[in-house]
Amino acid sequence: MSNNSDPFDSHSNDPIERDNRAAAKITDPDDAGEPAAVAEQMRCLQAMARERDAIIDSSSDGLFVCDNHATVIRINPASERIHKIKADAIVGRNMVDLIEQGFIDRSAALEAIQKRATVSLLQKKDHRKLISTGTPVFDDSGELIRVVVSERDITEIDTLQRCLEEEQAIKDQLQTQLAEMQQRLIQTQKIIARSPNVVKLLKQALKVSKADSSVLITGESGVGKGLVANLIHKNSHRAEKPLIRINCGAIPESLIESELFGYEKGAFTGARAGGKPGHLELADGGTLFLDEIAELPLSAQVKLLRFLEDGRVNRLGGTQARQVNARILAATHRDLKQMVGEGTFRHDLYYRLNVIPLVVPPVRERKECLLPLLRYYVDYFARKLGSPKRLSHAAVESLMAYPFPGNVRELMNICERAVVMSELEVIALEDLPRDVVSHAGDAGATPSVQWPPQMTLEQILQSVERALLLEATQKYRNQSQIAAALGISQPTVARRMKKYGLMASLTIRER
Ligand SMILES: Nc1ncnc2c1ncn2[C@@H]1O[C@H](COP(=O)(O)OP(=O)(O)OP(=O)(O)O)[C@@H](O)[C@H]1O
Q: What UniProt keywords apply to this chain's record, in alphabetical order (predicted)?
């Protein structure tokens, strides 16, 4: 290839060529009287030149070497391959001519000479994409003596990159579809999830539903631990099989083992003649949800641990263990770790159950869920009662200020009671339990409006309505939010705000 075709013209005034000619002369073995040190130096120079040639020729990137006028003096085998041309056909030709003849569309060598700096550019060659980088070489006096152009064929990298981007796009699309499907699933299961912490929890629950590992669901009483267990089961490959729920706190200690593991006939006095399968066996192929797991007696904890280790169930009074394939979900409102420290819960069982921990936040930490939960349950009980109901603004304010110590279950009870107790369609403060109203502080109080005695009731009501709307414009960002908070439609909000000249105050806030 190129090093066979000597790139250096012996008559040239090129500075590098001059040095090479001098070296060739000195290293001539016939050159009599040559000092040994100079000969050694020349051998080194020749070795370096061979090394340089080997580097240039073995490079997988194409390399062009041009003189200071952009005339090609050498190209390596990679460039021959890229351009499908022999070095002889290109050496000695100038880049300007090569562009004119359509061999290339741009020259990094020419641009590097022009700018006296390294230049990178993208070239198209026979449907292929090349990145060319022209690097100028200067001598000690700052004179530009060479330009080395490296070329890389990026067609394949580019194609791969495009494939990757397409795959990423498909993945993103699938993920969006999955998220939408999950959202629909959550909605069909009537789970209200607006707060980021609840959304995150449900995403985690949907993710773990695909595995078979044990899950420990913790959270205060009535926060929805059972709901999460249900979601996990319904979304798992076990969905067609039963979800068996057992409340470990509700079963007398003396019966819990027989309930969980079953018994053989005659296992104890009062035992059924034919024996009885336990909840674990009933959950075979499905899921066993152990609610209030902290209440499980230590003796039953040992047996449960054994089952988690070998998947075998030994009925009470039985001699033969049965293989059972049940996934275990457990829940508690107690601090199991603390119980382990106190010695009331086995640490080995705790670690077995806690493979995937899920924490359900209390309602007070789900501010964004509160109003949708209230509306959802008011609608739910109103539908059951067969008469439409909605919460008044004051009732909403009171409920929003209430800490719901008993969580979602208490919220449901309050909504049910309010729906049943209210005589009118709009649920008023009086329909709420006293402790809910007492928490409201100023929030539930009627806005204080001063009026002179000569005002009519109609005028007073309008004055109150205007004050309320004005307050709402300070609090909410748009008419829809105001409508939602006041329990009226958005067109009604618009009409009344116009009537009271309040449009400007909201427009300013909306900005
Ligand atoms: N995000 C939610 N959306 C709608 N309803 C909910 C939500 N979370 C909980 N609930 C409802 O609250 C009630 C209590 O939920 P659940 O029984 O799952 O709570 P829990 O934490 O298991 O209670 P406990 O500690 O007493 O066992 C259920 O009727 C459930 O449907």
A: Aromatic hydrocarbons catabolism, ATP-binding, Coiled coil, DNA-binding, Nucleotide-binding, Transcription, Transcription regulation
